[in-house]
Design a protein that fits this description.
Layout: H1 2-13, H2 19-47, H3 53-103, H4 111-114
Length: 123
């Protein structure tokens, strides 16, 4: 997400007349955004039993497209109408910062929690 924010800032601050930089920034955003989006569905699949995997994937996709896409389009459209494209890019960068803030607490990993527990048998 940090790299997505950097690529978004490069696209926003690139002066007119540099289409190569624009294309490279958009390619980077498109390439880098797939990881976080994929992790949403993967996390949902980890939380449910095998029998409900298809349903969980379907629900995350449905809510991602309906709720997320609809809300994002409305919010970005409203922001761009009122504040111009500078406001729209600030909103996109704020979304990147919010996503990073949500990801940071998950970076701390305790090795003891990931090791399988030994099954103790009574003597």
């Amino acid at each position: 997400m940090v790299l997505v924010a950097v690529a978004t800032a490069v696209y926003w601050l690139n002066p007119p007349g540099n289409p190569t930089v624009d294309i490279a920034a958009l390619v980077c955003v498109g390439f880098l955004i797939y990881g976080p989006v994929m992790l949403i569905g993967l996390h949902a699949l980890e939380l449910v039993p095998k029998k409900a995997a298809g349903t969980a994937a379907g629900f995350t996709g449905m809510f991602g497209y309906l709720g997320g896409s609809l809300a994002a389009n409305a919010l970005v459209g409203y922001t761009v109408d009122w504040f111009g494209w500078d406001g729209g890019f600030i909103l996109l960068l704020a979304g990147c910062v919010l996503a990073i803030a949500c990801i940071v607490p998950t970076l701390r990993h305790d090795k003891r929690a990931s090791l399988p527990r030994a099954i103790s048998r009574p003597a």
